[in-house]
Description:
Blueprint: H1 2-8, H2 10-13, E1 35-36, E2 39-40, H3 57-74, H4 84-112, H5 116-126, H6 129-141, H7 149-175
Antiparallel strand pairs: 1-2
Amino acid sequence: xxxxxxxxxxxxxxxxxxxxxxxxxxxxxxxxxxxxxxxxxxxxxxxxxxxxxxxxxxxxxxxxxxxxxxxxxxxxxxxxxxxxxxxxxxxxxxxxxxxxxxxxxxxxxxxxxxxxxxxxxxxxxxxxxxxxxxxxxxxxxxxxxxxxxxxxxxxxxxxxxxxxxxxxxxxxxxxxxx
Length: 178
């Protein structure tokens, strides 16, 4: 991407020099310390970017709104100064609503993003209608929706089968040399 950008801007940057190259990883998990005194983190700063998808605009906006509502309530509509305990109420409510979403996506990433074979199993799993419905509903409502226990068991068995099959295929492919 940088090379293509430099090529397009070649005539404008000719003779220039790179002063500094910076990058920072996307914070894909809520930060362990999100409030200190009368300061609190919201959005990306709080680590409210979801794993697997990298989505976060909804959670950024929602956390900001929830924090603002906690400040208004804690300040008695501006009649007193908020304290850390007032801000912690926002964190407790945010975690209550969205912690399961972050946990499920964390587990999915740990299981399916560790190897090419695991990613292939993930692709196979995503072809299932039940997985697509659960994914769509969870994305739509921004929460882990409760599933059908029987379908969840079938999904678990199929997922384990996909992981075993993908791992076996990977081993066979490693034997093949071109």
